[in-house]
Design brief:
Largest sheet: 5 strands, parallel
Distance between the termini: 80 Å
Shape: globular
Strand order of the largest sheet: 4-3-2-5-19
Radius of gyration: 23 Å
CATH class of the largest domain: Alpha Beta
Number of domains: 3
CATH topology of the largest domain: FAD/NAD(P)-binding domain
Number of helices: 17
Length: about 450
């Protein structure tokens, strides 16, 4: 008598103490001595290239000099004046590709100043102080702005406008504010509920009201927001994962990496979270790394992360790739999925075709390889996927909203920023800058009448 296929997916693969250890802070806060020594390495360059490389234009030499002077409150003020989500960005920003990549010390000594860790040190000190909110609102203007999306772009826009005395109503589809900071980043990058602590810091300024579990589902909703408010900012993020377009994609056990990460972030007791013994993650970005590493940390025996091009084309940084390998993830390049194999309705493996570049185009070489799998996670990018935007008359490019440099869309009084805005880098720090830019433009727009 035949028996149904039983995939090896179960919770509790580790001992109770292992979960706390595996998901502890991946990059612990610097000690005071470490911070002071690192700050002294900074040359405080005039026209510092690190400040130019920062999407939010933080005055890096200035905040580091204040750390060297043991003035952490002043240092944090310098950071947060330019980047109100400076604490989270210090944790997740790819500094090795931005400010630290152009640090003069990197050329001189082979190692840049640890700008990201110093930024976290200063902001964390402020957050832990008895009076963390160092900014105050301007006099009330009586103007109101609707912000749709409580991710980095929306929060940065709301905070900047609230500081200028406007009242901001933030509408978000999730139960908690934070966007990807709350639902889309690995737990070991944002331990101790930091995403919500940062949200609360932003809200403590006053003038911001968050409406949770609110979804933009009709063009009429957007019309109502435009009529009821002086301006609207759309920071919707990207809600839909691209499909692989291969047979077997609908089998049980095939899921989206972003959903896996969101579930993990909202699970209090990780020992209750099931994970496959053999996991295949398809994709080459940070989401793929976060999903693959966390699968391994949950107790998966074998985790393959598979990308269709070469290592240099992966959007995950070299540091992220090395982090994955350090944690036991096996990285593969030049493999494209051909079919997800199943047994009794559940995934059992993935068949890949070996790829090569021929005249600049990917072509199969004829060789194939199959990885057994209990779980397959897709991390091949996201799209906006909201038909309401086109119905409302917004101009789109590749499914994302077209704006000018300040984020203004083709609709009067409507701005957009973050991942939903066409032409961006899909970075948290860039989303923050989009929110800031749009907030300043909105302020000028609603106060010029």
């Amino acid at each position: 008598m035949s028996t149904a296929y039983q995939p090896d997916i179960r919770p509790g693969r580790l001992g109770a103490a292992d979960y706390a250890q595996h998901f502890a802070d991946a990059s612990p806060r610097l000690t005071r001595t470490q911070a002071l020594l690192e700050a002294e390495r900074c040359l405080y360059c005039y026209d510092a290239p690190c400040a130019t490389a920062c999407p939010t234009s933080i005055d890096v030499p200035s905040f580091i000099k204040r750390i060297a002077d043991d003035n952490l409150r002043g240092s944090a003020r310098t950071i947060l004046e330019s980047n109100p989500l400076g604490g989270m960005c210090a944790r997740v920003c790819p500094t090795e590709n931005l400010c630290e990549a152009v640090c003069v010390r990197a050329a001189q000594e082979g190692a840049p100043v640890a700008i990201g860790r110093l930024q976290r040190y200063a902001v964390d000190a402020l957050m832990d102080s008895h009076q963390p909110q160092i900014f105050t609102r301007a006099s009330a203007t009586g103007k109101t702005i609707a912000v749709v999306g409580a991710g980095p772009a929306g929060l940065a826009c709301a905070y900047t406008l609230a500081r200028q005395g406007h009242d901001v109503a933030v509408f978000d589809a999730k139960p908690k504010a934070g966007g990807l900071n709350e639902y889309g980043l690995a737990s070991y990058k944002t331990p101790d509920n930091f995403a919500q602590r940062e949200v609360q810091w932003l809200l403590d300024l006053g003038g911001i009201t968050v409406h949770s579990n609110w979804k933009l589902e009709t063009a009429a909703q957007l019309d109502t927001l435009r009529k009821d408010h002086d301006a609207v900012f759309l920071g919707l993020g990207l809600s839909t994962t691209h499909a692989l377009g291969v047979p077997g994609e609908t089998l049980n056990g095939v899921g989206d990496a972003v959903d896996f990460i969101a579930t993990l972030r909202q699970t209090v007791d990780l020992s209750t979270l099931p994970v496959g013994r053999r996991v295949v993650v398809i994709g080459g970005g940070m989401t793929a790394v976060d999903a693959a590493v966390q699968s391994k940390l949950l107790g998966a025996k074998v985790v393959h992360m598979v990308y269709r091009r070469g290592m240099e084309a992966m959007s995950a940084s070299i540091a992220e790739q090395e982090w994955a390998q350090t944690n036991g993830v096996v990285l593969h390049q030049w493999l494209a999925p051909v079919e997800i194999l199943g047994r009794d309705g559940h995934v059992a493996g993935v068949r890949f075709a070996d790829q090569a570049l021929v005249d600049g185009k990917l072509q199969p070489t004829g060789r194939e390889i199959t990885f057994e799998a209990d779980t397959v996670l897709k991390a091949i990018g996201q799209k906006l996927g909201n038909p309401v935007l086109a119905a409302a008359g917004l101009l789109l490019d590749g499914g994302r909203m077209v704006t000018d440099a300040e984020g203004q869309t083709n609709l009067s009084g409507v701005w957009a920023g973050g991942d939903c805005r066409a032409g961006g880098l899909d970075l948290t720090v860039e989303a923050v800058e989009h929110g800031k830019q749009s907030a300043h433009a909105i302020h000028a727009y609603i106060t010029s009448a």
